[in-house]
Every structure is written in structure tokens, then in C-alpha cells.
Amino acid sequence: MSGLPAFDAVVAEQVEFLTRHLLNNGPARSGLKGFPMPKFPLHLVPSRRALTTGRFVVAATHLFTPRLATRAFQLTASGTPAIPYSRMFAIRNAALGLGLQRMDGLTRPQQQQFLAVNIVMDSVDAAAFLAAGLRRDVSRTSAMLSAAVALSAVVAGTAALIEHKQAAAQETEPTATAPSNSDWK
User: Fold this and answer.
1) What's the sign of the alpha-carbon dihedral 21, 57, 78, 138?
2) Predicted local confidence at residue 27, as pLDDT
3) Nearest CA to 48 among 166, 169, 159, 171?
4) pLDDT at 128 over 90
5) How many CB atoms lie within 10 A of CB 46?
């Protein structure tokens, strides 16, 4: 276990890098440096907020309390790579959460693609957890708990994508206007 302090340093460096570059250098919601602002405030989409919050909760618990996270999912931590994998999972979720927070600086198609990537990643996680349970690499309970968390993210991501597309459709729909005086002649 002599590599553990070095691993912690790498994790801390990655978190600092992600925080610095995604939070401080990305375009803000106010439309800095020529980035256009969407007409509809997409950060208000409820499913997107739920997905983002879930990402940060998973990231925090798996990064700062990986042993607690492995116990919650009934995984064996001692003598297995569960702790490093838990931290890797945390970093990925933190990056996705930061990306979801900063999505307003992207174009509509890029936003929809990013939401779709979230859905695909969570779907693959669910399939991997279920496959691990079928192979008996982990207990069935552990596989089901892990798959349930991943599938809840699939549901939240899908709902966010649908809400996002509905907001985009509402934004582009022509609005009815009152007839002008020239229309009556």
C-alpha cells in the first residue's frame, strides 16, 4: 500500500485542475467574452439540477469517504481495488457534474450531445454493475444497488434531455401577435 499517498496526491491534483479550469476559466452564465446566452435559462431545468446534484453527491462520498461508499454498496474494500476505483468514479462524476453546471456556455446541439453522453455513460455503468453481479464478481445486492443508482442517473439524464428539447422547441415556436392596423384594411 505504499502507493496510496501518491494516489491521494494525484486525486487532489486532478480535483484542483478540474475546479480551476471548469469553474474559473469557462464561460459564465452572464455571457463573458462573446459567448451567446441562451434565451431560456437551462440551468433551471429541474432534471438537470437533480442530475447535477446527484453527480456531486456521488463524487463527494466516493472521493472523501470511499470506505463508507464501499460499505454502503456492500463491496469488499480490503485487498481489492475498490477504493481506487471508487475515487476514479468520483473524479468522473465530479467532471460530469461540473460540465452540467457549465453547459449554458455551449450551443444547443452541444448541450444535447453532452446530456446524451451522460445517459450513455450511466447506461454502461448499469450494464457493467449487472454483469458483475451475474458473474458473481460482486454480490447480487451490491450489483442491484449500484445498478439502481446508475439507472436513476439514466432516468434523470433522459428527463433532462427531454426537458431541454422541449425548452428549445418553446424558444423557437413563433408567437402570435396582435393584428396591426394595416391588417384590418
Assistant:
1) negative
2) 40
3) 159
4) yes
5) 11
Burial of 160 (C-beta count, 10 Å sphere; 0-12/13-18/19+): buried
d(CA 125, CA 107): 27
Report whether 14 contacts 91 (CB < 8 A).
yes
CA pair distance 185, 176, nearest whole angstrom: 19
Cβ-count burial 123-143 (b if 16+ within 10 Å, e if not): bebbeebbebbeeeebeeebb
Give the C-alpha separation, 48 to 84, whole Å: 28
- The span from the CA of 97 to the CA of 49, in Å, is 10
Asked if residues 172 and 66 have their Cβ atoms less than 8 Å apart, the reply is no
Residues 43, 62: Cα–Cα separation, whole Å: 25
pTM of the entire predicted model: 0.68
Element (H, E) at 61: helix 46-64
Query: φ, ψ for residue 102 (rounded to 5)?
Result: -95, 10
Say how many C-beta atoms besides its own lie within 10 A of residue 145's C-beta: 18
The predicted pLDDT at position 46 comes to 77
Length of the chain: 185
pLDDT digit string, tens, across residues 30-46 = 444 444 444 445 555 67
Question: What number is the average pLDDT over the span 87-116?
Answer: 92
